[in-house]
Amino acid sequence: MDDWNDLRLVLAIVRTGSLTSAARSLGVVHSTAFRWLAALEQRLGVRLFERLPAGAYAATSAGARIAEAAERVEHETQALDRDLLGADLRLSGRLRVTCSESVAYSLLTPAVGAFRAVHPGVVVDLLIDNRALSLSRREADVAIRAARPREPALHGRKVADAAWALYAAPALLAVHGPLDPADLGAHPFVGWDADGRGVNSADWLERHVPEAAVVYRTSSVVNQMVAACAGLGVALLPCVLGDAEPRLQRALPEPLSELDRELWIVTHADLRRTARVRAFMDLVGAYLARRRDLIAGSEPAATPPG
Prior knowledge:
Layout: H1 4-16, H2 19-26, H3 30-44, E1 49-51, E2 57-59, H4 61-86, E3 93-99, H5 101-118, E4 122-128, E5 142-145, E6 154-162, E7 164-168, H6 170-176, E8 189-191, H7 200-208, E9 214-217, H8 221-229, E10 235-238, H9 239-242, E11 249-250, E12 261-268, H10 275-289, H11 292-295
Parallel strand pairs: 3-4, 3-5, 8-9
Antiparallel strand pairs: 1-2, 5-12, 6-12, 7-10, 7-11
């Protein structure tokens, strides 16, 4: 096998478990990936995947062996890529930044505006994803995460404590009365759909709010906020969203200590000296730190209208 693209195809299928998802990750259509895999198997004279029901693909021993080799090649090329980028002293070029939807909505977009005003030569690609994208695999250059980094190869700093609280429209509380922590099921709630599995706020709601009380579900935290503003139900939101929204008020006065987190800005250690990475982390990190009281839920909330 002398074509890195063939290795990438096999690795993508192993990682995603389907040809459709692998094609999407590689930026090709399904039919192209299908012909590509068929030609590769014919050229090698060996079957690389078993086709299972519902479009699933399971690697044969040969496919698994190629995927292992592909991961080693990928690791080396990514390390080389980071080394070269780490020596880049230009304050120009493209910078990939990832964060959650709520951070992008409430904090990062104006911070990027402030950064671009100082460094107009840097183009920022914002990848909004609640998953922790891999900085080692160069899925992003900089990440803003509500968790202390555990990988030894990551470098960054804490910019704030991050708190969550329960919020509702004043009109909803006027109809249903004050929220009773001992009987949350007496109020309608906005919650997560199936995509919320493993999300801390979704797990908290599942433990404390009866399923029958959840009247509206969505995978978007921002849409949960909008639904609460419309009076659909009580929503569990980051304080940086809820406290800044004048159409909402806290349904309980204090943030939920169980959901306390830390907000960090991080990059891979190999990229920390890259000029545009360093400039972004310095400027945007300082911008976020200046808003630490809002992020931590200790800044006075917006006053609801009326």
